Amino acid sequence: MQLKAKVMLLAVVPLLLSLLLIGVAMFEQQHALGRQTRALVRETYMEARRAELRHNMDLALSALQSVHTTPDNVGADDATQQRRALHALGRMNYGPDGYFFVYDQHGTVLMHSRQPELMGRNLWELRDNSGQPTIQLLLAKARAGGGFIEFPWRKPSSGQTVPKLGYVTLLQPWGWMIGTGLYLDDIQQTLSALDEGMDRNIRTTIGWLMAVAAGGTLVISISGLMLNLSEHREADAQLRLMARRVVQSQEDERARLARELHDGTSQTLVAGKLLIESAVDELQRQGQPHPAALDKALSRLNDALLEVRHLSHSLRPAMLDNLGLPAALEHLGREFGEHTGLRIDTHIDGPDIALPDEAKTVLFRVAQEALTNVVKHAQASHVDLSLGFEPEQIELRINDNGQGFDLEALRALPREGIGLRNMRERLASIGGRFEVHSDMARHPQDPQHGTLMVATVPLRALARLQAAAPV
């Protein structure tokens, strides 16, 4: 694993672990807080209901006391007093589901204002869904001094069996169990809404944590990517600069060798030629025949001078520095045509502009390498060499009518196509690009096919070269 990947991993993993631990802690804390809140709300609600039931039972007992002490009941028999007491309790309903009920010690219903069908029935054996004897538990609570008890019962307003908080007491001397109660389904709804809100808050918190984790990971990834791109651009710029320096060093060495050949070797050969010619003239004036070897030596010296001049021009054409790129390309085309027999047409399109030395050298070398490839491999009879000065770029095109080649197969062979790679790298070093189009299925007489090489250098890249050139 690369160092940058390790650094990013070390940055992302602790962040995700920290957020995960924070999320787990917040999840547990919110659940604990929810349970505490739920218990507190329920206890507060139940305490309020207990207080309400005590108050209602006190009112009922006071009403029974007043019924017992009214003038009409004074001296009445016990049965009459009981009937009037039950009638008074039956009228003390409160709210949609608040009422009183009365049972005797054997579980018989003496009064139930909201369920009159139960009047006179014995419910001693009545059991709830869990098997608990409801009426027996209520009577046991009343006999033990009275108090609160929870039990399930049918709610009059809905007809559904729901939990109910009851308050019962034993009325002496009649032995009645008097009770009332409040249904608890509303608190269940309140607690369910509280649980739902708590779950919603937990989901929202987890969602925010996930968003923060995703955002943090994204920021780290983008930062790493930007750093990587920055380093890549810097490395690419360094490689381009190195390539330019290598090419410039090669060109400087070529220029030095060209000067050495022109000023040293060429001058030495010229001096030797002049000495031999002077010797031949001297022998002719004296009327003496000169050896044939001198004529051969002069011929060989002339050939050597032409070869040295050709090598010097190939290494670094003086015309490129003195007259510019268009003149150097025209001379290059004529020279290749004379030596190879190819018909090379050179075209210059657009007004000539001043180019940096580095750009002129690269374009000239690309043309030189392209023509060399045509001579070696294309088996062509015609080459079109054009240099175009366009508004936004300079374009060099070399189009031949040769046999073409398989570009994809050439790319698959690393040892082949060195010349094409050199041209591409030369152009890349100055911010240009190189394209090759080749058709192996062309008609021999069709000049629009064969191989087309296009070298393009944007003017903005030339401006950067000009700005970076030493003064």
Entry keywords:
rod-shaped; five-stranded mixed sheet; Beta-Lactamase; five-stranded antiparallel sheet; 61% helix; alpha+beta; Heat Shock Protein 90; single chain; 471 residues; 15% strand
**Strands of the largest sheet, in order across it?**
2-1-5-4-3
Major beta sheet summary: 5 strands, antiparallel
Regions with little confidence, pLDDT below 50 for 5+ residues: 441-447
Strand fraction: 15-25%
Looking at the overall shape, the CATH architecture of the domain at 3-183 is 2-Layer Sandwich
CATH classification, class level of the domain at 3-183? Alpha Beta
Note the run of SSEs as H and E.
HHEEHEEEHHHHEHEEHHEEH
- Integer average pLDDT: 81
How would you sum up this structure in a few lines?
Helices cover 61% and strands 15% of the residues. The chain is an alpha+beta fold. Helix 1 runs antiparallel to helix 2 and helix 7 packs parallel to helix 8.
Can you offer a commentary on this structure?
- This protein is of the alpha+beta class.
- Among the domains are: 3-183, 2-Layer Sandwich (Beta-Lactamase); 322-468, Histidine kinase-like ATPase, C-terminal domain (Heat Shock Protein 90, 2-Layer Sandwich), CATH 3.30.565.
- 61% of the residues lie in helices and 15% in strands.
- The chain is built from 11 helices and 10 strands.
- The chain has a 5-stranded antiparallel β-sheet with strand order 2-1-5-4-3, with helices on both faces.
- A hairpin with a 6-residue loop joins strand 3 and strand 4.
- Helix 7 runs parallel beside helix 8 (357-378).
- The longest helix has 101 residues, at 185-285.
- The radius of gyration is 56 Å and the shape is rod-shaped.
- The two termini are 46 Å apart.
- Mean pLDDT is 81; it is low at 441-447.
